[in-house]
Design goal:
This protein has helices at residues 7-10, 31-36, 281-288, and strands at 66-69, 73-75, 83-89, 93-99, 109-116, 122-134, 151-159, 166-174, 177-185, 194-200, 214-224, 237-238, 259-269, 301-305, 309-317, 338-341, 344-354, 360-368. It has 369 residues and is mainly beta. The strands form three sheets. The protein has a seven-stranded antiparallel sheet, with no helix packed on it. Strands 1-4-5-13-7-10 form a six-stranded antiparallel sheet, with no helix packed on it. The protein has a five-stranded antiparallel sheet with strand order 14-15-18-17-16, with no helix packed on it.
């Protein structure tokens, strides 16, 4: 209690705590709070570790802040953890950028914009973002049990398009099968940041894969070809579906005026969207580095050879990565495969990685002027 009271003021005639007697409990007429043990949203203590999404505020961009995506490119190129999908014959070119345009309380957003408009899409094509969730992070959902939990996705979105702006989806990996849930989002006003919340029903039929691989995914798509659209909104369906029915064959990519921006993406257990969980930049970066890690700076030392030709190596600590690193790219700021040593740029050959593990790897290569 925040202030002293007489005992007589705390109890009613039956000896029960009187309604409103305590500052830290809901009033007795809040039936849902009394029967379920939950508090109204405005009374929830917003503690950390609610958000299942890493880098939902779009702060971390280790690979860069701008990239181009064309047909057939499903790739991580910019903002960490957010894969841009331009699959199949989408007949479209997009730019994906980290923008310093965001609603109050955020600094950055993630933007997809049409830079080369295409004709009518064909084949099994789809366009948008995909966020993969590691199996270890979804065990609390309890999928496959009768008491599986609802989840709520919330985000800020902005687009020039209002009708059929994009589709929100949740895609489960269950014993090799895809279980999908999609809903179309219509924005109220063009070119205006809007807060969106979507509650996704629990899935009780089967459990998610709960290892260190991708077990589920959030998908935000601006176009899906007809064969990839679900037959109904806001319901679980089994199959290779990648969007809601209203996004089937949409002509989203036919104008270079079209764009979509998102930020403040949060996925949490329960049927209520709570305020976005802000983590420190250092913590968010560390979480991202479980999946991708970039080292900047020069190599450690030349091991053999003279000034014009040498064997060079460097090591890197990668503690906490999800899998053993399998690919490392050595380049200068311009993107070419060279390394700077003694004030000169050397061309790289005989490149290789050794002693790779979850927490360490060694790179060796020959460098020649």
């Amino acid at each position: 209690m925040s202030r002293a009271r007489n005992l007589a003021d705390l109890l009613d005639a039956n000896g029960d705590v009187a309604s409103g007697a305590l500052d830290n409990v809901p009033p007795s007429n809040d039936a849902s709070a009394l029967t379920t043990g939950t508090l109204p949203v405005d009374r929830v203590p917003y503690v950390g570790r609610r958000n299942l999404i890493i880098n939902g505020a779009m702060q971390v961009a280790q690979r860069g802040t701008s990239a181009t995506h064309t047909n057939g490119q499903n790739a991580y190129k910019t903002i960490d953890r957010w894969k841009v999908e331009v699959a199949g014959n989408s007949n479209i070119t997009l730019t994906n950028t980290q923008e310093s345009d965001a609603p109050t309380g955020f600094k950055y957003s993630n933007k997809l914009a049409v830079t080369t408009a295409g004709g009518t899409p064909s084949g099994t094509s789809y366009v948008g973002w995909m966020y993969a969730i590691e199996g270890y992070d979804v065990e609390a959902l309890g999928y496959g049990n009768s008491d599986a939990k609802s989840i709520t996705l919330s985000l800020w979105a902005k687009s020039n398009k209002t009708t059929n702006s994009f589709s929100v989806g949740f895609r489960n990996q269950i014993s090799g099968n895809n279980i999908n849930w999609y809903q179309t989002i219509d924005l109220s006003a063009a070119n205006t940041w809007e807060y969106i919340t979507v509650t996704i029903d629990p899935y009780t039929a089967a459990a998610l894969l709960n290892a260190g691989t991708s077990s589920a995914g959030v998908q935000l798509h601006i176009k899906t070809e007809t064969s990839l659209g679900t037959s109904a909104e806001s319901t679980w369906e089994t199959g290779n579906f990648l969007g809601s029915p209203d996004m089937e064959g949409t002509a989203w990519g036919t104008s270079t005026s079209n764009y979509l921006q998102i930020t403040g993406v949060q996925l949490e257990v329960g049927s209520v969207a709570t305020p976005f969980e802000h983590r420190s930049y250092g913590e968010e970066l560390a979480l991202c580095e479980r999946y991708y890690r970039e080292r900047t700076g020069g190599v450690s030392k030349p091991t053999t050879g003279g000034f014009s030709c040498m064997t060079t190596e460097f090591s890197h600590n990668t503690e906490g990565m999800r899998v053993v690193p399998s690919y490392v790219k050595v380049q200068n700021g311009g993107g070419s495969a060279v390394v700077k040593q003694y004030g000169h740029y050397f061309n790289i050959s005989n490149y290789g990685m050794s002693n790779a593990g979850h927490d360490y790897f060694l790179i060796q290569f020959d460098a020649e002027l």
